[in-house]
Write a structure and sequence with these properties.
The protein is mostly helical. The protein folds into two domains: 156 residues, no CATH class; 165 residues, no CATH class. It is 76% helix and 0% strand. The protein has 17 helices and no strands. Helix 3 packs antiparallel against helix 5 and helix 9 packs across helix 11. The N and C termini lie far apart (60 Å).
């Protein structure tokens, strides 16, 4: 009898406070957790499903034109793979967010189901999409983590709580999210068509800055369904930041810096930006110029997640190629535009602006040195 009471008392004192409970469950309620880590997981999920699916489908389209049966057959398989990858977008985002939030395996598996549901809910004429998944899965994962391994019937309790909370949050929030995101996307895309110069500058600068910040520009672009000229402006801004920092910091980081920033991410410069914010000026000025060039001169188009990826793995240019081939506007001038906007112009402008600032003493040797 005394041993039973001792065990009960010990179990009651397992968590001394609510903070102790959250710490034990690895639940960290902070802006970084949800808007950096979770959004990064969301971007990874988008990349592994919708983006790759689009690339495979585009490749299959052109391979299917070949006058060779094995190649045509291979193109058919690629098309099917691309279709399936795109269809799994919600599940991939759900798993990506769950991994980023360090969810247990059972919770992670449930997150895939919640992601599938939230991505498509409420249905026609438009669904909540990635942002709906983002909101629903965060709540589902955190509540799932809270009850995980707290009972002897964990195999039942954890999935029921995770799926129950996630589906309830999706049911309450997704219809509103769908309406707002659809309106915001239409507003941005339509306004860019009506005012390509002003919106070209605004979108290019804002999305480019978001790309360099520890926030996922790809996830944001996908959430608002950015498309057409607005997507081209977003692509211009992202490329300007990545190529701009790669070129402007060449004397400090050499070719390793070109690859890590130009094909990786300009986010690597954030520690230096926090110390010397003026190093952000050259790439940002370049984006303010290349944005309206993309919308007014070359009329580049890009859709969704690709628009927020920039030159990362050359995903942005590939997405631009895919969007323009889809709309029938891909020609030699579009190829020239992709070269100028994604590589040449931001490299030249960023180098020019950074060298002027170095001459003025605003940027000094070592300011853009990447931390190893």
């Amino acid at each position: 009898m005394g041993k039973t009471k001792a065990k009960t008392k010990t179990k009651a004192k397992k968590y001394k406070s609510f903070k102790d409970f959250l710490r034990a469950k690895d639940i960290k309620v902070s802006a970084k957790t949800y808007f950096v880590d979770a959004m990064g997981g969301m971007a990874q999920g988008l990349f592994a499903s919708l983006l790759i699916g689009t690339i495979l489908s585009t490749l299959a389209k052109y391979l299917g034109m070949a006058d060779c049966y094995p190649i045509v057959r291979f193109a058919h398989y690629l098309a099917e793979a691309g279709k399936l990858a795109s269809a799994a977008t919600g599940a991939a985002i759900g798993v990506g967010i769950a991994v980023a939030l360090k969810a247990p395996m059972l919770v992670m598996a449930c997150s895939a189901a919640i992601g599938m549901f939230a991505n498509a809910y409420p249905g026609k004429p438009y669904a909540a999409g990635p942002l709906g998944v983002f909101i629903a899965v965060i709540f589902a994962v955190e509540f799932g983590k809270a009850v995980s391994k707290e009972t002897k019937v964990d195999i039942l309790v954890t999935p029921i709580v995770t799926l129950g909370v996630g589906s309830l949050v999706a049911y309450l929030t997704c219809p509103g999210v769908a309406v707002i995101m659809n309106w915001l996307g239409n507003f941005i895309n339509t306004t860019t068509q009506l005012h390509p110069f002003v919106m070209g500058i605004i979108i290019s600068v804002v999305v480019g800055i978001i790309l360099t910040l520890p926030i996922s520009s790809a996830a944001i672009c996908a959430s608002i369904s950015i498309a057409g000229l607005a997507g081209g402006a977003a692509l211009a801004g992202c490329c300007a930041q990545m190529v701009g920092f790669a070129v402007a910091s060449f004397r400090e980081n050499k070719w390793g810096g070109v690859v890590s920033q130009g094909l990786g991410t300009s986010m690597l410069q954030m520690p230096n930006i926090m110390t010397h914010p003026q190093i952000w000026i050259p790439a940002t000025l370049a984006s303010a110029i290349t944005g309206p060039m993309a919308t007014m001169i070359f009329k580049l188009e890009c859709n969704g997640v690709s628009a927020g990826m920039g030159t990362c793995g050359l995903v942005g240019p590939i997405g631009c190629f895919s969007a323009m081939s889809e709309s029938g506007t891909l020609n030699w001038f579009a190829w020239l535009g992709m070269f100028c906007i994604c590589l040449f112009t931001p490299a030249v402008l960023s180098l020019l602006f950074s060298e002027i600032m170095r001459k003025l003493g605003w940027i000094k040797e070592g300011y853009m040195k990447l931390q190893s």
